[in-house]
Amino acid sequence: MNEFVKLESALIRAGRELDYPATPAIALRVRNELTRQAAPRAIGTSRDWSRVLVPLVAAFILALALLFAFPAARDAVAQFFGLRNLRVFFVTPTPTALPTATRNPSETPRPTPRATPTPTTAPYSLCCETTLQDAQRRAHFKLLLPPNELPSQVYYLNIFNNGEQVVMKFGAADKPRFVLYQMQRWIYQKILNGGYGKGFGPGTILDETRVRGARALWFSGDAHVLVVLDEAGNPVPGTERIVEGNVLAWEKGDSNDGVLYRLETNASLQDAVKFAESLEEYKP
Amino acid sequence: MEQTEREQDWIRRAQRGDVSAYDALVRAYETLAFRAAYLLTRDEHEAADAAQDAFVRAFRALHTFRAGEPFRPWLMRIVTNQALNRIQASKRRASMNEKYAQTETEKQEMRNAQEHLETREQNEKLMRAVQRLKSDEQTLITLRYFLELPEAEVAQTLHIPQGTVKSRLHRTLAKLREIIAREFPDLAELTNL
Description:
Largest sheet of chain B: none
CATH topology of the largest domain in chain B: Rna Polymerase Sigma Factor, Chain: A
Mean pLDDT of chain A: 68
Number of helices of chain B: 9
Strand order of the largest sheet of chain A: 2-4-5-6-14-13-10-9-8
Distance between the termini of chain A: 81 Å
Oligomer: heterodimer
Radius of gyration of chain A: 23 Å
Radius of gyration of chain B: 18 Å
Order of helices and strands of chain A: HHHHEEHEEEEEEEEEEEEHE
Mean pLDDT of chain B: 84
CATH architecture of the largest domain in chain B: Orthogonal Bundle
Helix content of chain A: 10-25%
Number of helices of chain A: 6
Number of strands of chain B: 0
């Protein structure tokens, strides 16, 4: 007979009958901590939201500074929120005064959440316009197209000779319904000034969704800044751009030869996913 | 979907960066992690911090987790290490234990004096006897008896063979019996056959 049978039973009973404190909201704390570590607050920035709102450019500069300071440490957490080739950083806004003429001085000023985003899809107009056939001939990956629609304009770009981007506009060239970015081996960084999940607060809203079963991200709400990173993870000067439309982002393949897709649109999430899931390989 | 299958699915998705999948993993294990940390630190706030740190570290190390392996012992190893590190780093173990004993005493006074008094007193003394053990011995008792993990899982958590768990448990219980005989004679009946 086990010589410790009574002692073992007493230990088990003591463990069961102990008055444990109620378990705190560990999951929430973990989420907050990961988010906090992903975007440490800048020294000297105020948390006083009453004086809002955040010029995106200021947020962008702040985020770039932080990125340069802690690129390696934040990489894992950035990937947590992003995709393999798309990094998402949350930044704390730098407060500025609201125009006083637009508010009652007796009111407590506060940020105005956007219940319904009113995005505008900026037509792509950078380098280098070409034809669909030429873009496919030059690109080292298969381009995707909707089954019954050809793009109104096509651009092919290869900045570093190590990555390619093909941009297609669908709809009127000056007011497209969809602008589809297809890129390989480029690392894109998104910088947000909002929170995670619907209704989280003012700023850009990031939600998760699926495109043909693959994890996808949906950016809506306020505008956000987009910047291209080079292979060393440094922002490429001149590539920063404010994105005002909604964006659906997803990937196909692995990080070596996979393709990152970004769909800028004024359309709803449902319409964007429908469009994304309709895409098929282009057959010249 | 079975629990283990669902868990492996969460892990695979979390390794790919799926936020909601990692949330689900944390929620599935937060109570166990918190209780393990509480049993070792005897402090509610230290335990919450240790559990939180453990989950953050686990997230960062998730890429090293091998698919198909059981997740709970892997996580519990991180949790116990975090709890023990917090104790050693803060060097507040004595005060934490005193605080725990004091809190327990206060709770005890508030309870109905007749209700399970004897058992509760016995549990309290037994807990205090366990606290006289070394930290690795306490971890062993905590995992095997207080949290009732199977021996095989304790072995996985501590990265030692199952046979070693058995022999260490035997030695630790023998040591606990000595402590009881020396410092808690009221509990002597627990050490008799």
